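Section handout 9: paired folding examples.
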Amino acid sequence: MKCRQFGSTSRQVSQIGQGTWNIERESTGTAVAALRRGIDLGMTHIDTAEMYGSGKAERLIAKAMEGRRNEIFLVSKVLPSNASRKGVIQACAATLSRLNTDRLDCYLLHWRGTYPLRETVAAFEELIRDGKILSWGVSNFDVDGLAEVCGLSTSYPPVCNQVLYHLEERAIEHAVLPWCAAHDIAVVAYSPFGSQSGFPAPRSAGGSVLQQIADLHGVTPRQVALRFLLQHPFVFAIPKASTRAHVDDNAKAGELELSTAEVARIDAAFPRGDRPRSLPMI
């Protein structure tokens, strides 16, 4: 699996990782086997959150990581309802306990809530000083919010912004992606195969383009779609894969190379549209 530098950190992180939203709905054996298969294939960037299954996803990851923690770039997220200075510290302690680890490689604010961001940032910086987390970032932040949190950090700048990004939702390309690139902040795409609308149907105009390009490479349309998102050097993707077969499919996208003409065809088939008033999220 190809790796790239994760924002302003010195870490080389797998460009395709493993998301775990709703993974707890699978049997423990199936979920753990899928995660371990991903680690074997180099998909060592694992993302979770205290919200996912009310901590159940974190416990599943703990099982999958047994004996392999040092291979993993481990990310979790704190809920906005826990984002006071004291609340972040307590939430992080609970997350570390569920994950059976002594540190997170990156800790994110899941989305902006009602607590002042200065409290959340102060807590993140305290956790870094204490060695509980190695870096911090945000999720679902537009440019205004990113600028605000960057202005609040005195010693440890945010290293990533996790956002909704797939072929039919390219809003981040208007401002968020360029801003993050200019400020050395990694962009992590969640739900890279689509969300409510689902993956483009094979007979749709866009789906047909993906299928044609996939046929030329002997791959799947999903692999083509995932590879397209990774064209930008600051982008990472964390598709969920709850079975070994899905993990294998995702990993193969890292080996795919699209031509300039193919990228242009996909770009035309899935126009990014106008910039929305607010950043889409799920």
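Moving on to protein 2 of 2.
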Amino acid sequence: MPDVRRILVAVAPAFVQSPTADFAARLAATIRADIDALLVQDAALMMAADLPFTQEILAPTGARRSLTREALDRDFRALARKLELKLQHSAGRAGLRWNLRSVHGDPIAAIIAAAAENDLLVLGLPRGAALGIATMRRIARQTGRPAVFLGDVSAPGAGLSIFDGDGDLQRELLTIMGPLARTLPGEVTIYGRPSSDADSSRMEDMRRLLGEAQPGLRARLAIIASDMPDVAELRGRTILVLPGRAPDEPEPADPAPR
């Protein structure tokens, strides 16, 4: 894995007020990387706005109004401006180079397309929610890039979960894992599917290297085959997914909620 020189920060409109941009700026300042910010408006929402019966509920009043494409465009431009100001404050203050692009389309497809020019992905998650692990692994696998899915970093004990990509461990990964482990206060959990002694040794090496990067770090290993976390266990945690298998190898679907 090459050095991390550029970080793709993908933000959906609902996450503009989240700490995604600030957290990415702190991580970029630690490893001296540039920021490529991407604000994605879901094309499916724009299509829904063309339907005559579609309404939206305004927070915090709860009032209803018709959902129109014009209103979505206006709100999207306003959110883009808010994100620009956040980046000017957080990234600019740290002396980082950054740029912001606004696009419409399928969010995952837009992220995968933009990943080719970047070395690491940072994606915002809504507070109290989580994507399916299979979806996270598909993004990391198809882009060939490590992907950080940012949880609620302000929650007490909100730690880091690392999903091993079944690939060869390289010391360069500490460029990502070390700063993440130092930034997040809680325990680090490394999930993997070791099928051989070499796989188990790789996971132990990962835990050892993390311990060297952050003395006193609390880290544990978990086998996915028998210790697969459900959504509730991952809720609020930041998740680092390492790329692994080739893009054409099938990924198992997320299990049904228990």
